[in-house]
Every structure is written in C-alpha cells, then in structure tokens.
Design brief:
By secondary structure, the chain is α+β, with helices and mostly antiparallel strands. It has 2 helices and 3 strands, in the order H-E-E-E-H. A hairpin with a 5-residue loop joins strand 1 and strand 2.
Length: 79
Amino acid sequence: METRPHNDDPALRRLQEEFTGHRIWRAQRWDGCPGDWVATLHDPAAGVDATVIQPDSASLRAALEDERQRVACRMRGAW
C-alpha cells in the first residue's frame, strides 16, 4: 500500500497552496479509488471546524472559504 501523499492532482495542489492552515487530502474509497475531499484544520486562525469533508474540490473550496469568513467573524467577536 502506498503511503506517500499524491500531489499529481492539480486541483488538490491548488487547494493545498491556497489553504495552508489546513492539511488537504483525498480519502480512499473501499475500492481503492480516490474518495471525498478532506481538510483537517492545523491553524486555528484558518478555520473553525476541525475537519471539513466534501464530495468534490469545488465544494471543498467553497466550504474552506466559508471557514475563512467564520473565523474572521469570530475574531471580530461577531460570531
């Protein structure tokens, strides 16, 4: 079983570069194919939820942008 992270996917690489406060990766389905898109929070200044899971890269990007807004509101005391 391969344990090295795969960065061949351009969408994955872009998300990793843009959202550096999260560890972004693809889950593996039961059949060995890539599954859901996952972001695990590593920097509390980058988000609120510890883990964000979405079915595709566009949905994960939108959810992580929402995380940025939520943490900005929290830091201003409006959340």
